[in-house]
Amino acid sequence: MKKELHITLDIERLPEGYYLATSRDVQGLVAQAKTFEKTVEIAEDIARKLLHAQKGKTKHQERITYPMMISA
Fold it and tell me: What is the rounded CA–CA span in Å between residue 46 and residue 62?
């Protein structure tokens, strides 16, 4: 049974019109493409390859995302 990991991509649109994806969850993940969809597709492939290469070498930290609102 394969383990599923949930990762978050940070995607920004660059002034040149390309999309750039990085992730705090997968060290070294950087993907860039002309469309949003292609950027996500490339990022998914890179994430899978990076996680496979890092298997056993790094310990994945459990991350809890907890939304909160504060008065400033």
Answer: 21
Give the three-class secondary structure for 44: helix
Q: For the residues of 58-70, what is the DSSP string, one character each?
A: SPPPP--------
The CA dihedral of 14, 69, 6, 52, to the nearest 10 degrees, is 60
pLDDT at 52: 86
Which pair of structure tokens corresponds to residue 5? Answer: 């990991």
Report the predicted TM-score, pTM, of the whole model to 2 decimal places.
Answer: 0.72
Count helices and strands in the chain by DSSP H and E runs? 1, 3
